[in-house]
Design goal:
Order of helices and strands: HHH
Largest sheet: none
Number of domains: 1
Helix content: 55-70%
């Protein structure tokens, strides 16, 4: 049986900045996402898997953008 559903996951700007900070300390984007999302409420924590690739892409985009600011 197949179900289609739509959901929304809001990632706070502060959390994205924290993920970037973890990456700057030597962690991978995946590790940074795991560290930060482990503090989220259960529904958000378990929903991360649905948008994991998009969050990692945003972390990488921000890291690449910040290289020009150093």
């Amino acid at each position: 049986m197949e179900f289609k559903f739509t959901d929304t996951l809001y990632v706070n700007e502060v959390d994205l900045e924290e993920m970037c900070d973890w990456c700057k300390k030597g962690y991978t984007p995946q590790e940074a996402l795991n560290i930060v999302s482990s503090g989220w409420d259960d529904p958000d924590f378990y929903a991360v898997g649905y948008v994991e690739e998009q969050i990692i892409a945003e972390i990488n985009r921000r890291l690449e953008q910040s290289k020009g600011c150093d």
